[in-house]
Design a protein that fits this description.
2 copies of one chain form a homodimer. The first copy, chain A, is an alpha+beta fold. Chain A contains 9 helices and 8 strands. The structure holds a DNA duplex (30 and 30 nucleotides).
DNA sequence: CGTCTATTTGAATGTACTCAAAAGCGGTGG
DNA sequence: CCACCGCTTTTGAGTACATTCAAATAGACG
């Protein structure tokens, strides 16, 4: 039966090759963590002590405007992806984002000292995290181009094409927040398409 | 008298420490390149063969919609920053962006094999490029939050606050393209502020 | 001075939002 | 089993934000 660590290990070894001693060391650094739906993984203002890998479940990374109480979702973290305020984690500074579980979640966590030790002991991870950071960056560049070149309706259509499973899995008001549109307007877009 | 390579070296050594042999090796990998205003550094469809450091001048990285001919500026590259289609460079695939000089430019370039050799010979650079990639990523995250949470007028105000020098240096229609607004509307925003 | 390009201005239009009310939907307890 | 509660989605009217298009003005450069 598959252990939680296996999905993390598989994600890693699809990009870099490790020997058994490295695998054992790597696996020893991660601790399981469970979150109930609604629980916070990180709260803005705190230092993000852990980088978390999502084994099962789904979270939102968002910013809250304290003037209006309005939430803006920066991204969702689903299975086989990461959930952290990366800037807070790598600089060990106060987080600017909140991270909250949208479903019951199973995570694997590494703390900052262990993360530094990992990079030191197995320098390949320096490369690994450079590459996944780059790939995330490329997706953000595409998203920015979308926001400056498309109408909100076009952005929604592109979203359901790229992430059909997220669109089905999450309520409309969260999708709307991610896209930067009102739930009412998203409702109108959706009803338009079916006619 | 300062050589072009000095500004690159200073940027690098502000984050990592190199010995003299490493400095010499590093400097040997970069070749100067000059561009006249209007010249292309990269054209969409080509493979981005070089990573370029901007010693002097200014370029735009943009995407062209072939249906409409409309250009959308992803970012500007000014002194002490980089100009490349990073995804094209690191994966040696066809570029999706064009890069064009907005002024006469002085660059330093490294080709892909030399870049790989640099990472291999001096693994510290693996770390260095991970860190600057992360920092660029954080700025993109903030930009995305801006696009989903602010009106276009608010985005312009945030832009001039963050990049007053770019706002003065470049014509309005380029700023408008970067912000994803029309030049006419930007004109109206600007005239409003002065009243 | 003339030409080319960039900016400004205004009217008409389109896109998306606000606000309010109604309808849908899932869970819980009587 | 149904009634009620809380939360999400839908719908519509009115409004605000931003665009399009066209024409006038301003600036840069030879």
């Amino acid at each position: 039966m598959a252990k939680p660590i296996d999905s993390l290990l598989q994600t890693i070894t699809s990009k870099i090759t490790l020997n058994q001693a490295e695998i054992d060391f790597f696996c020893s650094l991660w601790k399981p963590r469970f979150l109930k739906k609604g629980q916070y993984l990180v709260q803005a203002g705190d230092v993000c002590k852990y980088d978390s890998f999502v084994v099962k479940g789904c979270l939102k990374i968002f910013h809250t405007n304290w003037q209006t109480g309005q939430e803006y979702i920066l991204s969702f973290s689903l299975e086989d992806w990461w959930a952290s305020d990366l800037e807070s984690f790598v600089k060990q500074r106060a987080a600017t984002y909140d991270i909250q579980a949208l479903e019951d979640c199973q995570l694997l966590q590494i703390d900052y000292p262990s993360f530094q030790e990992l990079l030191k002991q197995i320098p390949q991870f320096e490369r690994y995290f450079r590459i996944i950071t780059e790939n995330y960056l490329f997706s953000l560049q595409k998203r920015i181009l979308g926001t400056i070149s498309q109408t909100k309706e076009e952005r929604y259509k592109a979203f359901i094409k790229q992430y059909p499973q997220i669109n089905k899995r999450l309520p409309q008001y969260l999708i709307a927040s991610y896209l930067g549109i009102t739930p009412e307007f998203l409702s109108k877009i959706r009803s338009k398409k079916e006619s």
